[in-house]
Specification:
By secondary structure, the protein is of the alpha+beta class. The chain has six domains: 2-193, Rhopdopsin 7-helix transmembrane proteins, CATH 1.20.1070; 206-321, Beta-Lactamase, CATH 3.30.450; 361-456, PAS domain (Beta-Lactamase, 2-Layer Sandwich); 463-532, Helix Hairpins (Orthogonal Bundle), CATH 1.10.287; 543-703, Heat Shock Protein 90 (2-Layer Sandwich), CATH 3.30.565.10; 725-846, Response regulator (Rossmann fold, 3-Layer(aba) Sandwich). It is built from 25 helices and 24 strands. The strands form five sheets. Strands 2-1-6-5-4-3 form a six-stranded antiparallel β-sheet. Strands 8-7-12-11-10-9 form a six-stranded antiparallel β-sheet, with helices on both faces. α16 crosses α21.
Length: 847
Amino acid sequence: MDLLVNTALSLLLIAVAIVQNAFKCKKHSIHRRLVHLGSALFLGIGLCYLLYAGFIPAVPLNIVIFGIIGWTCALFFLSFLMDLTSQRRPFWFPFVYLLPVVLGLMNFLVPQLWGRRIIGSIGLCIVFVCSLIFVVSWIRAGTDDRARRDGEWLLLVFIAFSVGLIICIFRALSGIFWVISLWYLTLHIVVNYLKLLQQLTDPENLLIIDNVFDIVVILDASGRIVRLNRRGIQLSGFSPNVINGNGIEKFVSHVDLSASSRKQWLEKNSWVDNGHGPGRSPSIDAMIIMYSGEKIPVDLHIICLVDLAKKHTGYIVSASDMRITHQLMKEISDREYATRDLALSESKFSRMFIFNPTGILIVDLDTLKITDANPAIEEIFECDTKALVGRQLSDIGLEMFEMPYANFIEKIQMEGSVPEFSANIKLGPQQAHRCRLSAVSFDINQTRNMLLSVADVTQQEQMREALDRKQKVETIGILAGGIAHDFNNILAVILGHIGLAKMRIVDAHARLPIEKAEQACLRAREMTRQLLAFSRGGKPVIASCETRQLIIDSAMLAVSDTSVACLFDIEKTIWPLMVDKIQVGQVIANLITNAVDAMGKSGIIEISARNFDLTNTSARKRPAGIDSKPLSSGPWVEIKIKDQGPGIPDSIRSKIFDPFFTTKEKGTGLGLSIVFSVIQNHEGSINVLSSPGEGAIFTICLPADPETAQKNTAPDFSILPGKKKVLLMDDDAQVRETARGILSSFGYNLTETENGPEAIKVYDEAYKSGQPFDFCILDLVIPGGMSGSDCAKEIHRINPSALLLVSSGYSNDPVLSEPKDYGFSGVIAKPYTYEEFRQVLLKVLVL
C-alpha cells in the first residue's frame, strides 16, 4: 500500500509539471524537451511499479519495453541539457534515438540480475559524465562571478540528486520514484522560475551593451560566443540560445576566418591595451551572417580582454552596419558619375543601335517617317539604309496580318508599346521575308519617336514548315508500310498466273484480255510503289545511273499521248547520278505530269540539267535542303523543270507538298508528296518559283558521282541455263503456287517450305545427301517467324557457297538495297511478272 501511495504521488508531481510545460511549448524548445522527458519518466515509473507489484508479468517482452523506456529517459535528459546549455548537436545525434532499442534488447539478452545492473550502471555513468560536461561548460560561459556561483549551486544539486538516486537503487523502489520525480520537479523549477533562460550578467553591463547602436559580441578565450547584445539579436534574427556557445565563425564571415583558424584570427586582428602603439583597434571589413542566411557588410573592431596576469580571458567584438554608409557612398558616386553617364549614354545607344544584330528603325510618331535605321536592317530589306530614311513607314512593304497598320499606329500612340507579332516584308512579286515585329515609343529631343524592332525569322519558319511536312509524310509512310507486304503478295500471285497464262495462249485475240489485266496489275504495282515512297525508313537502292538518259526517258514517258513538247538543255559533260533510278525517274515523271496538266496538255516544257559542285563551298553559301539545313559538301546535279502554265497561287504554295492536297478534280494529292519524300530520302533539295500567269519552275538537286561511268549490266539472254534444283521458302501458299508454275515452266525442280526452320532442315538434308540445291529463294518477312536474312545465315553455315535470292513485297528494308551484305546474290521484288522473274534468274545464274 505504501509503494502504491508513493508511486502515485511521484507520478502526480511529474504529471503536474508536464501539464505546466505543455502550455509553454510554443514559447521555447526547453519546455518541449521537459514534456518529452517527463512523459518518458511517467511511463517508466508506471511500468516499473506494475512489474514490481506483479500486475503485469515479468516476461521478456515487458522487460525489453521497460529497458527501452529507461534508455529513452536518459536520451531525453541529455537532449534537454543540450538545449539548456546551448550545446551544438552533432550531426549523428538523431541516430542516438535508435539506441534504446538496442540497449533494451541487451537487457533481455543478459538474464542475470547483476548483468542488467552492470549495463544500467554503465549507461547511467555515461549519462552522468555527459551531463556533467554540459553543465560545467554552461557554468564557464557565465559572464560574471554571480552567474557562475548560481550555476555551481545547480551543479551541486545535480550531483546530490545523482548520488541519492544511486543509493536508492540499492535500497527502496519508492525512494527511486521520489528521487526521479523530485529531480524532474527541480528541473521544472529551474527552467520556469529561476530565469535561467535569460542572459546572466551584471545589470550595469547589460544596460550598456544593450543600448549601444552597434552590434556587440562577447567571446570567451577560445572564441566562442558568450553574449550577443540586443542590437545584434534584432538585426541578425538569432536567439541567444541558438547563437551562444558557437564559434565566432557562425556569426562573422571573413576570408581568413574558419573553425580551425578562429583563435589565430582573433589574436591577429584584436587590439590589446599595452600602453603604447595605436590607441584604437584595427578596422576589419567583414560580413555578418544573419539567421536567414543573408549577409550584411560591417566594419569590425576586436578588443582583447586580459586579467591582471595579462592572460587573455576573452574578446569584445563590435560591428558597425555599413549598409547605410555604402548607400551614401553609392549615392555620392552615382551623382559624380551621373554627368559622365549622361555624356556617354548617347555613345552607348549609338553603339548598341549600330551593332545590334536585330534590325531597328527609328520612326517619328508625328509624321510616321523613318528617321534612322541600323545596318542590320539592310540584310532584311536588301537595300541601303539611306534608301529607307525619309520614307513613310507604310511605304516600305510591311504586311501586318495579325494587326492592321492603322490599329498598330493607334496602339503605339495610346499605349506606348506593342508586343511582338508576325508580319511580312514584301521585297518583290516573288520575294518576301517573314519577320517578328515589336515597337516601343520614347522621347528624344522633345519629339516622340518609335523604336521598331524587326527580326527576320524566314529561315526558322521554313524549318518549322519542313518539319511539319516531314511529319505528315512519315504518317503516310507508316500506313504504306503496313499494307505493302500483303498487297504485294496478292499482286505477285496475280501477275505470276497472268504470265503463265500468256505463255500458254498463242492466239493474239485471246491474249488481249490477259494483257489488259496484266497492265492493270502493273498500274496497281506502281500505286504501291508510290505509297511506299512515303516510307521514312525507305532506303533507296543507290546506284550510278546515266543522268541524260534517265531525264529524257522519264520526261518522254510522261508527255506521251499529249501535245506537250519537251525542250532539253543538258550539259554534255553531265555527271552520272548516285540515286535510286526508279524513284528519281518517278520524281521527274510526276513533276512533268503536273506541268502537263497545268498547261492543259499542250505547250512546251523546258528541262535543263547542269553540274553543281559544292565540294569547296562553305556551309553558309550552300543551298538549303529539305530540312532547311545546307546541302552536304560534294558533287551535285541540278535539274530544272519549267512549264508555261498559270503558275501556283501564293495562298497554296506552302501546301503543295502536303499528302492528299490537290487542286485537281480527279487528283489523289500524292504526286508532289512522293517527290518530296524521294528527294528527302536522297538528302537532296527541291525549290519552287512561280508567278501568276508565268508558269512554275521546280529545281531539284541530287547527289552525283563524277568518278563512276555508267555501265549497262542488264543481261540479255534468251535461254536460262539447264535444269536446276530449287528451294523456295514463303509463308503464303498462293505465292508458292505462282512461283511453282513459273519455275516449272523453266524446267526447274522445286521444293517448297513454309518457314525458315523447315527450309534449313530440308537444305541440310539435301546437302548431306550429296544432292544440294542449285539456288534458294527466301521470303524476307515471315510474320511471327524466322526472317529470310536469318535463314540465309544458317544456310551459309551449312554451305558457305550457297546461291541465295531474297524475295519481298517491302521496299524499305536495307537487305533489298544491299543484298550482298546479307549473303544474297539477287533480289526478286514482289509483285513480279513472268518476264521480271526470268530476267533476275538470267542475271544471277548466267553471270
